[in-house]
Write the structure tokens for this entry.
Amino acid sequence: MPPAIILLGLAQRPTRGNRGRVDNERFKFLNSAMNTTEPYRRLAPWLRHRFGAAVRIIALDGGGTCPNRDGTLGQGGCAFCNPHGSGSGLAAQGLSLTEQYLQAYHRLAQRVPQAIAYLQSYTATHGPTGRLTAQLAELVGLPGLLGVTVGTRPDTLTPTTWQVLCASPVPVLWLEMGLQSAHDASLRRIGRGHDAATFARACHEAQRYGLPVCAHILLGLPGETLAHLRATIAFLNALPITGVKLHNLLVVRGAQWEVSWRQGRLPLLSRAETIAWVVEAIAALRPDIVIHRITADPAPGELIAPGFAGDKRGLHAAIHAALKSTGTTQGCRLALPNPTA
Ligand code: SF4
């Protein structure tokens, strides 16, 4: 199926109580065409194009837990994840979603009055569905809120969860779903607790429900080479996803990897290798996929290694320079799935 048709399919989200009918007006933003002279389809200009003005993503910590921490699958978490489930820890400090959103929103409301709230911490779709329903309901109507993006794992999306997501009155809604790698051996090494096939099935389910998916992957996982990265990108290219986040490996405080790294058991990409891997990922990626991030974004104070990851601005500049000097654009070396693999 060509990408344009994939996008058209995702642009249509079944309305509550009538899955056969689609609500084009509510969700057709995914089908936006955008002319860009940039080497890849960057999220910020894409959102500006779609909503007519700049849009911020406001990350929120809704607390909770995930199957890799509460004993459902395991207790230690994924090897890379911080003890707050990649969140800020503000929920544990007693700040509600509304308080967190308003604090962040008012800081820049004059300059950027539109925002999308990101339920980032742990797995927002894990646990009692009433919790997710309440969180989505709490966010509706907050000033400047255009929509919500929900952090999830592919193995937590039950029929009830899909119902909750589809029934939500939030006008714009998409899923942030971790794949990390298309290689099951890598997923086992980092203790993900699901395989790549589960991720693929969840993407197809999301398409059926009209919910867009932004896939998260990690670049430079132990044991992986550029060939593994190309295969992961090819895997994503074959799925009905609309966005991707590229993350370079980070060792953050309190993660399992902190111990491995201190014991010298976790090799990390150098800065030059990181830049080369990001360029390769962009070159191999389907051109319609919006790239939400090209590097990881450590929270203040949590980064242990590599030191260069703390200079996000410098790393981005170097990646953009490498894209320019090599004439690389998104999809210029499109990776397709290997049918014999
Ligand atoms: S990455 Fe997600 S699933 Fe893994 S430990 Fe962190 S919150 Fe849990």
In short: The two ends are 20 Å apart (CA to CA).
